[in-house]
Amino acid sequence: MIIRPAETTDIPALCRLEEECFSEPWSARGFAEFFENDCARCFAADEDGEVCGYVGFHLILGDAEITNLAVTAAKRRMGIAGALMEAVFATDGVSRVLLDVRESNRPARAFYEKYGFKIDGIRRGFYAKPREDAVLMSRDIKDN
Q: In the chain, what are the domains?
């Protein structure tokens, strides 16, 4: 498995991951618009030519705000999400990483805490389908 920059040719695979992993998946058009944004970055986990995970984020003034992190169910708990997070941490210019996560998503919250994220606050009613609060988390990055 390799971590590489995602490309627009990966959009169909990214959409499949979104459909599998999220109740409000991004569309192909949403990804196309994301890739057109100069602040957008995306890494794909590629295993034998198949995208099995990805992380997308916006990099603005040193802050990497994660928009999406997804790994196909068959490949979870194999270090892929961690490798994707490490790619974000190692990105030139990143001094802090920000994200939000559903309050009920305890496995994801535990994962982020394992990678040094701290809770900054709660955004009430942020998610729809179902309506739910978001837990805001961040991690400072040293030596970047």
A: 2-99 (3.40.630.30)
